[in-house]
Specification:
alpha+beta; Alpha-Beta Plaits; about 10% strand; 15 helices; 7 strands
Length: about 325
C-alpha cells in the first residue's frame, strides 16, 4: 500500500495526499473509454469514502489524485446507506436486496447494526481504503470488458502528504494537471478532458469546488478567480508569451546541474520525482512536524532530514532526500 503517517499524530481536521498508481509494467492500457470509466469510479468512491477529490489526472498507464481526507467523520445511518448505494448506480436484484437488508439492520439497532456501521465506516475517511476500492473495482470492470484476468495494477501506490494550503498545495495541484502537457498529448491542460483543471474549465461542479478549495487561502471564493490563479501558476508569466520555446528535459537537467535558475513553470512541465517520492511536502516547519511520526512508523534509528527542494521552489521542503537525479 502507500506510505502512511499515523493520523493520531496529525493536527487539524483533515489531511491532503497526492496518490499515484501505475499499471503492471507501465503498460499503456487506457484509451478514452477506460479513462472515462476510471474517472467516474474515482468520483463515486470518493463520495462513498467521504473524501474530497481536489484535482486528478488519468493517463494511459497511471493516474494521480489529490485527496482531502477527513480525520473524524460522523456519519448518520441514512448517510451510510446513501453512500453504500453510490457504489452501485445500476444495482442488480441481489444488490437491491442488500440495500434493504442493511437498512433493516440499521433500523433494528443492537449488535448487528453496530457491526454494519463499523464495517462500512472502516472503509471511509482513509486514503488506503479509497485507493484499494478504486483499483479493485476498476480492475474487475477492465478485465471483464477486455477478456483479461490477473493483476492490473502494480502492487503499491505512492502517496505524499501535502501541506493543506498555500504554495505546497497549489504547486502539487499544478503538477498533477500538467501531466498531459509533459507527456506531449496537449499544449494546454484545459484541452485534456481527463484532468481536474479541464473539468473545472468545462463547469463540472465537483471539479470547480476542488479548484476553489486549492486556492481558497489566496482569496479565491469564485471559480473565475481560482481558474485565473491556477492557470497563472501552470504557465507562469514568461511561459505564456507567444512563441516562447519549451525547455526540454535535457536542458532542464543541464540548468539544474549548473545550479542555474529554472522557472517553476518550466520545472512543473518536467516529471519531478519530489511529487511522488517525497513522502511529505510542504514548508520546512510543516515537514519537520512529522519527522517523529515518520521515524516511529519506519522504526528508524535516526529521524529523517528536512530537505529543501532543489531548484526554484521557494520554501518547499520534503521529508526524505531523493537520489541525485531529481527528474525521472
Amino acid at each position: 500500500m502507500g506510505q502512511r503517517i499515523r493520523r493520531t499524530k496529525l493536527s487539524g481536521v483533515s489531511a491532503i495526499y497526492h496518490a499515484m498508481s501505475r499499471t503492471v509494467g507501465g503498460a499503456f492500457l487506457f484509451e478514452d473509454r477506460e479513462k472515462e470509466v476510471l474517472r467516474k469510479m474515482i468520483r463515486q468512491v470518493a463520495d462513498f469514502c467521504g473524501v474530497e477529490v481536489l484535482t486528478y489526472c488519468i493517463m494511459s498507464n497511471h493516474f494521480h489524485v489529490l485527496i482531502r481526507v477527513p480525520f473524524a467523520d460522523t456519519v448518520s445511518d441514512a448517510e451510510l446507506l446513501r453512500r453504500f448505494k453510490v457504489l452501485y448506480p445500476k444495482p442488480t436484484k441481489y444488490q437491491v436486496a442488500s440495500f434493504a437488508e442493511i437498512e433493516r439492520l440499521l433500523r433494528a439497532g443492537g449488535d448487528d447494526a453496530t457491526e454494519v456501521r463499523q464495517r462500512l465506516l472502516a472503509r471511509m475517511a482513509d486514503l488506503s481504503e479509497f485507493m484499494k476500492t478504486v483499483k479493485q473495482r476498476f480492475s474487475v470492470w477492465y478485465n471483464r470488458n477486455h477478456g483479461r484476468y490477473g493483476t492490473l495494477w502494480a502492487d503499491r501506490f505512492k502517496s505524499v502528504l501535502v501541506e493543506g494550503e498555500g504554495n505546497p498545495l497549489q504547486t502539487m495541484a499544478a503538477y498533477i494537471d500538467l501531466n498531459p502537457v509533459r507527456a506531449g498529448l496537449v499544449e494546454d491542460p484545459k484541452d485534456y478532458r481527463f484532468c481536474g483543471y479541464a473539468e473545472a474549465v468545462a463547469g463540472e461542479v465537483a471539479a470547480k469546488k476542488g479548484l476553489i478549495a486549492i486556492w481558497a487561502d489566496r482569496g479565491a471564493k469564485r471559480i473565475d478567480s481560482a481558474l485565473r490563479a491556477h492557470r497563472s501558476l501552470i504557465f507562469g508569466k514568461r511561459a505564456s508569451e507567444p512563441g516562447l520555446p519549451e525547455m526540454s528535459r535535457k536542458q532542464a537537467l543541464k540548468v539544474l546541474d549548473a545550479d542555474g535558475h529554472l522557472p517553476k513553470a518550466a520545472m512543473l512541465r518536467c516529471r519531478v520525482r519530489y511529487f511522488t517520492d517525497g513522502a511529505i511536502l510542504g514548508s520546512a516547519e510543516f515537514v519537520r512536524g512529522f519527522t517523529g511520526a515518520w521515524q516511529m512508523e519506519r522504526q528508524r534509528k535516526h529521524p529523517p532530514k528536512v530537505n529543501t527542494m532543489r531548484g526554484d521552489w521557494g520554501s518547499l521542503a520534503v521529508i526524505q532526500g531523493l537520489r541525485k537525479q531529481v527528474f525521472g
